[in-house]
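R.M. (postdoc): so does anyone remember the format we settled on? I'll just put the structure tokens first.
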């Protein structure tokens, strides 16, 4: 029973954060979906923009835990649906700019 609940929570998290990312992409005028991005460099650029800019609908910053959850939820989505899958967006050696953007945002939120 716990596994099913955990699976549903994971699915909901992935869906929620993917929708937030797609809403952001549409807002800044990017065409298509994140799944359609066809280079590691462009994927990283768009994800950096998202994580640096993301805020709650009320304008407040997300919590540190929410930022971490978003990172892993979006990674799950990309590794399932991206044209260039698999991509290790959580690997700081491969996606160093994204890692720096996320850790910088977390540092700002904890100061």
């Amino acid at each position: 029973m716990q596994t099913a609940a955990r699976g549903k929570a994971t699915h909901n998290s992935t869906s929620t954060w993917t929708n937030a990312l797609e809403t952001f992409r549409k807002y800044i005028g990017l065409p298509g979906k994140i799944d359609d991005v066809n280079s590691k460099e462009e994927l990283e650029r768009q994800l950096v923009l998202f994580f640096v800019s993301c805020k709650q609908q009320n304008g407040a910053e997300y919590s540190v835990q929410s930022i971490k959850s978003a990172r892993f939820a979006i990674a799950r989505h990309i590794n399932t649906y991206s044209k260039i899958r698999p991509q290790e967006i959580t690997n700081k050696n491969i996606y160093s700019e994204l890692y720096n953007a996320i850790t910088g945002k977390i540092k700002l939120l904890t100061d």
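R.M.: ...and that's the designed sequence above, right after the tokens. Also worth knowing: The helical segments are 2-27, 40-53, 64-81, 96-110. The two ends are 39 Å apart (CA to CA).
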